[in-house]
Specification:
The protein is an alpha+beta fold and about 325 residues long. It has 2 domains: about 140 residues, D-amino Acid Aminotransferase, Chain A, domain 1 (2-Layer Sandwich); about 140 residues, D-amino Acid Aminotransferase, Chain A, domain 2, CATH 3.20.10. The protein is built from 9 helices and 16 strands. Strand 1 and strand 2 form a beta hairpin. The longest helix is centred in the N-terminal third of the chain and has 15 residues. About 0% of the residues have low confidence. Bound molecules: pyridoxal-5'-phosphate (PLP). The site of pyridoxal-5'-phosphate has 14 residues, from helix 6 and strand 13.
Length: about 325
């Protein structure tokens, strides 16, 4: 597939992708002040497609913009409709949506002065982010030599473009050393998250994940916590150090791109049996049923794109639950 062709939604209009360009003086390109979202849509087992937790992603986008003081020029309802329109226009069975709010050409300098605010949505096919093999057999991770940003150095609840330099440095180091993904610690040595995923460990059947202080409030993290609680599992949000990851029975990463990816090795130490454990498998299977619309109970997380998906959901517009962990 030629990924320079297709459509984008830019500042209120659907345009051919090749016409959705930015000026070389776009402020965000130089200084990293932008906010974004990554959201997946899936083919539904009942027919049609649905976007997973679209409202929650759009709500987080608004929150990110508030944190970094970028005005949102489009409301949630407008972006919701635009997202569904773009999925229809792109014609993909399943894929990924990228919402981005950024500053365009205008005065240069760190203090943004009247640069226009742009809003765009892109759509592309995206398979297993950490590989099909990783999804089924688990990946190998490396604890990064780069610390996660401290919450007072940059603001981690904002999914802000500039924050991702830290992730890219860690990811490159890990992949360059022969691993699949990086796990970052905070400056005190507490485990935080992957370069683009939240992290869970399983001990004695109980899930533990770091608190939201220095990690992104992942929507998949929240989904997995809700599924686990509904399955009768205990979930704790607490700090732990890297050696607790080495000793965990199971480890997995969650994210819109990574979905639920098991971790089989960290820093050359085998995790558990060296393959996805029973809790990981159970939650992964349930997660994949939920996103395909096979679990009635979680259909409200699916925003139907087409008639077939809408009639299966029994409603036109997806509602949303309050997240388990406040964002
Ligand atoms: C740094 C970071 N942590 C966690 C996540 C997982 O968040 P979500 O599940 O909302 O995609 C992401 C991906 O957006 C991320 O970039």
């Amino acid at each position: 597939m030629d990924d320079t062709r297709g459509y984008a939604w830019l500042d209120g209009k659907m345009v051919p992708l090749e016409d959705a360009n930015v000026h070389i003086k776009a402020h965000s390109l130089h200084y990293g002040l932008g906010v974004f979202e990554g959201t997946r849509f899936y083919a539904q087992s009942t027919g049609g497609r649905a976007v997973f937790r679209l409202e929650d992603h759009l709500r987080r986008l608004e929150g990110s913009a508030k944190i970094v003081q970028l005005d949102m020029l489009y409301g949630r309802q407008e972006l919701h409709e635009a997202s569904l329109d773009l999925v229809r226009k792109c014609g993909l069975e399943s894929g990924y949506l990228r919402h981005l709010v950024f500053l365009g050409a205008g005065p240069m300098g760190l203090y943004p002065k009247g640069n226009p605010i742009h809003t765009s949505i892109l759509c592309w096919p995206w398979g297993a982010y950490l590989g099909e093999e990783g999804l089924s057999h688990g990946i190998r991770c490396k604890i990064s030599s780069f610390s996660r940003h401290s919450p007072n150095a940059t603001l981690l609840k904002a999914k802000a473009t500039g924050n991702y330099l830290n992730s890219i440095l860690a990811k490159r180091e890990a992949v360059g050393s022969g691993y699949d993904e990086a796990i970052l610690l905070d400056a005190q040595g507490n485990v935080t998250e992957g370069s683009g995923e939240n992290l869970f460990i399983v001990r004695h059947g109980r899930l533990e994940t770091p608190p939201l202080t220095s990690v992104l409030a992942g929507i998949t993290r929240d989904t997995i916590m809700q599924l686990a609680i509904d399955e009768g599992l205990e979930v704790r949000q607490q700090y732990f150090a890297r050696d607790e990851v080495y000793l965990a029975d199971e480890v997995f990463l969650t994210g819109t791109a990574a979905e639920l990816t098991p971790v089989r090795e960290v820093d050359d130490r085998q995790i558990g049996e060296g393959r996805p454990g029973p809790v990981t498998r159970r939650l992964q299977e349930l997660f994949f049923r939920v996103i395909r619309g096979q679990e009635e109970r979680y259909r409200h997380w699916l925003a139907p794109v087409d008639e077939a998906a809408a009639s299966a959901a029994g409603a036109g517009v997806a509602a949303t639950d309050e997240p388990v962990a406040a964002n």
